[in-house]
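Fold description:
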Amino acid sequence: MELNFYKPAKTVSGPAYSRWFKLMATIFSVALVVYAIDIARRFPLLEYGFSVKALLFFAALMLAISYYWFLRSTITIDEKGITQTWMYNRHVEWRDVRSAKMIGVPYAGWLFPPRLVVRTGNSFTTFNGGTQDILIEFAHISLAFQMQKMAGK
């Protein structure tokens, strides 16, 4: 069985999350910040112990880091494989891919576009696509691996 059979017709690159998803992340993050400010005004947080302050600080830091990477994350599909930038980069080379399938969230496709789940040996890696071109390439990848699976039977 040839494991390195898929090569995209061209390099496709773009944001990992759609504008709609980024807008929803922005609204959610702003709402959390407003809620945190409201809590800080109503409770004497400075009187609490170090562990409570540290927990709140790291929760706010994690929100800021996650929000930053939601806005900046990109995905690239090229002749080498698939790469998605994030706090840590996810990369899968074509020679390591055993199967690929698109999955979606039922009844919420308008908010959460389909994702590509790639199986490499014993692990699974999920990639997000934020543009139509990337989602079309995901469909090509998924179809190619489904056809390979059917041909192998």
Summary: The first strand starts at residue 12 and ends at 15. Residues 98 and 120 are 5 Å apart (CA to CA).
